[in-house]
Specification:
Distance between the termini: 29 Å
Strand content: over 45%
Shape: elongated
Structural class: mainly beta
Number of strands: 6
Largest sheet: 4 strands, antiparallel
């Protein structure tokens, strides 16, 4: 569930090996959300990154909570929300 006012993103009962196409050989993954406000007319933008959540790439259900310290404050433009998923081996 994405809260478009605060940028908070909650992913409830995420089962990594069932819900994500885990990269071959990966044992863990990281999830971060990005929030930008972009004015395509002027080319101005402002971005915010959430906390990073690291978790094993396995069959255990987890709830991921991603939060931003502040919303982008650019006066004009549209809000863009993205999700970064990184894979690694421990």
């Amino acid at each position: 569930m994405l809260n478009t006012t605060t940028g908070a993103l909650d992913i409830v009962d995420l089962v990594p090996i069932m819900d994500v196409a885990v990269a071959p050989g990966s044992t863990h993954m990281s999830i971060t959300s990005g929030w930008a406000k972009v004015d395509f007319g002027t080319g101005e933008f402002e971005t915010s990154l959430s906390n990073k959540v690291n978790l094993p790439a396995n069959g255990t259900a987890v709830t991921v909570n991603l939060t931003h310290t502040a919303a982008p404050t650019l006066a004009t433009g549209i809000h863009v929300f993205v999700l970064l998923i990184e894979f690694f081996r421990k």
